[in-house]
Amino acid sequence: MTIYSHSRISTFEQCPLKFKYQYIDEAEVEVEGTAEAFLGSRVHEALEKLYKDLKFQKINSLQQLLDFYNSEWEKNWNDNILIVREEYDKNNFKKMGEKFITDYYNRYAPFDQAKTIGLEMRIEIKLDEKGEYVLQGFIDRLASPKDGIYEIHDYKTANTLPTQDDADTDRQLALYAIAVKEMFSDCKKVILIWHYLAFDKEVRSERSEEQLGELKKEVINAIKQIESTKDFQPNESALCNWCDFRSLCPKFSHLVELEDKKPEEFLADDGVKLVNEYAVLKAEEDRLAKKIDELKEKIFRFAEAKKLDRLYGSDAAVTVWKKDCLKFPVKEDQCYQEFVKLLKLQGLWDDFSILDKYKLQKAFEGGQIDFEKMKELARFASKEMVKRLYLRFTRAN
Question: Domain containing 97: what range?
Answer without folding.
Answer: 31-112
